[in-house]
From TrEMBL:
One of its GO terms (biological process) is DNA replication initiation. This is Replication initiation protein. Belongs to the initiator RepB protein family. InterPro entries: Initiator_Rep_WH1 (IPR000525), WH-like_DNA-bd_sf (IPR036388). The lineage of its organism: Bacteria, Pseudomonadati, Bacteroidota, Bacteroidia, Bacteroidales.
Length: 505
């Protein structure tokens, strides 16, 4: 190791050495430069100002539509001019030049070293940087590090930049990046030691919770409320053992993209229940019943998401022929883990040996902007019936499940519909003036806007809607309990309703 330098970070792609005496760094790339995104691979060693400055440079590259490939190919130094007006737009503080100067010093004091197929390269993350109070900032980037900016540029979005410029805390930036990475999974976790190492702080549990986790929790929920980001996270502790609370094993972070109790939340839960039912139905049809569907509605928001994730994994493993006893595995998951009784109407009593893990929520609650939007306590979701907004009847979840079932299984001929077509159907069904259902326990009457009925249901103008009428019939009788009669109601221009009986049992 180089004299006076100590290792401060290492990963599969990057090793960083630091000299505290002169505040310089050496970044050794241990894989091909085009496979390295130093913004994410070495994120924890970047302070907030440096991180923002790099994004600011990349934004300017995009704004000026600079083709980095040509500079790299021709081995040319890139010169970037950032006007004072643009700086003041994103750095409204009159002392912004201090943050930019500190970031420029950090980047200029960081050497990058890596091997090439025919030799090696040594360069600085930025070369010469100058600032003038009247004209702005000029930055030179040498060809040796341009590939790093090229990789960042490929993954750059304006929304991501706006969030980066708004985030105040380093811990928030860390959790924002992790939520982006794990959003499709909906969950990620760290042991206290892993989390401390990831954000390069002391592994003291209380400090992790108060200074870093809850600080990021508050800021991300504030950004969510302001509409700048469309997700946030809730934090849970997973504990084991006896004593006062037991031993903290892990922090569990659940990514949420809607408030509990909103229409979007109901739609998501309905979609998950539909997916679970369809997975069971396609594997072991004999296990599907109205009783199972009713018990699924008793699951909490957290349990439902976890069961949906398990079903997704189960479905993939089944497709890859990794499962021999599909019925046995489904039976075990439903009974022993989620206390769902495939043979009965009521959920089973919890078995302590197989009980669903106990998560203690430590995250702050997020409140809707108005009382009409949502209730904020997740505990409300442990009740048998989900709470609905004031203008929604108690049976509305049946309609939500019906819509999700139609969209999920809709086909045009032999092909499945694409995402754009799914969004079109979803928009149409969720507009009150287009489809408005009324249910009295035995009869479902769907009032349909006249033009929609004529051109989409009765006489479809496009092949996309040829199967719409049949899909409505099939799905409504699947999800509305005790449904005996289905009819459409269509008004004429004078407002008079005409009733069209569709199906009666």
């Amino acid at each position: 190791m180089k004299k006076n330098y100590e290792e401060i970070f290492t990963s599969e792609k990057i090793t960083v050495l630091s000299n505290k005496k002169n505040d310089s760094r050496i970044m050794n790339l241990t894989c091909p430069i085009y496979q390295t995104n130093f913004l994410t691979d070495a994120r924890q060693i970047l302070n907030k100002g440096t991180y923002r400055a790099i994004k600011f440079i990349v934004k300017q590259i995009q704004d000026e539509r600079i083709m980095l490939e040509s500079y790299i190919k021709n081995n040319e130094t890139l010169k970037i001019n950032i006007s004072r007006e643009d700086i003041l737009r994103w750095y409204p503080d009159e002392h912004a030049h201090r943050e930019l100067k500190a970031a420029a010093e950090w980047l200029n004091n960081t050497d990058v070293k890596y091997e090439t197929p025919t030799g090696w390269v040594m360069a600085k993350l930025v070369g010469e940087v100058s600032y003038d109070i009247n004209t702005g900032m000029t930055i030179y980037i040498t060809p040796g590090v341009l590939p790093l900016y090229y990789v960042v540029n490929k993954h750059f979005t304006m929304l991501d930049f706006a969030v980066t410029m708004s985030i105040q805390d380093k811990a928030t930036q860390f959790f924002y990046d992790k939520c982006c990475k794990w959003r499709s999974a909906g969950i990620f976790s760290y042991t206290p030691l892993e989390l401390a190492e990831a954000i390069n702080v002391s592994p003291i549990t209380n400090l992790l919770k108060t200074r870093y986790i809850l600080s990021a929790d508050r800021e991300m929920k504030k950004l969510f409320q302001e509409g700048l980001i469309d997700f946030y996270f809730d934090t849970y502790e997973l504990r084991s053992g006896k004593g006062r609370g037991g031993k903290l094993d892990k922090f569990i972070f659940r990514i949420q993209d809607c408030l509990p109790g909103t229409e979007k939340d109901y739609q998501e839960q309905a979609h998950m229940r539909t997916f679970i039912i369809e997975t069971i139905k396609s594997t072991v049809p004999s296990l599907v019943s109205d009783d199972i569907f009713r018990q699924l509605k008793e699951l909490s928001r957290t349990e439902l998401k976890d069961l949906c994730s398990e079903m997704s994994i189960f479905k993939n493993e089944l497709r890859e022929n990794k499962i021999k006893d599909a019925r046995g595995i489904l039976w075990f998951k439903l009974r022993n883990r989620y206390n769902i009784n495939p043979n009965g109407a009521e959920r089973l009593k919890k078995n302590p040996q197989n009980e669903y893990p106990k998560f203690k929520k430590i995250s702050e609650e997020i409140h809707a902007k108005s009382q009409d939007d949502a209730a904020s306590k997740e505990e409300q979701y442990t009740q048998a019936t989900l709470p609905f907004e004031d203008d929604k009847p108690s049976w509305w979840s049946y309609w939500s499940d019906t819509i999700n079932d139609i969209i999920s299984n809709y086909r045009v001929g032999d092909r499945e519909i694409n995402e754009v077509e799914k969004k079109t159907l979803s928009y149409m069904f969720n507009e009150k003036d287009k489809f408005s259902p009324q249910y009295d326990g035995e009869e479902l009457r769907i009032q349909i806007e006249p033009n929609i009925y004529k051109n989409y249901v009765a006489q479809p103008f496009s092949p996309l809607y040829d199967g719409l009428h049949q899909a409505i019939k099939d799905s409504t009788f699947k999800f509305f309990p005790n449904l005996k009669k289905l009819s459409y109601a269509v008004s004429d221009y004078g407002g008079k309703l005409t009733i069209f009986p569709i199906k009666e049992l």
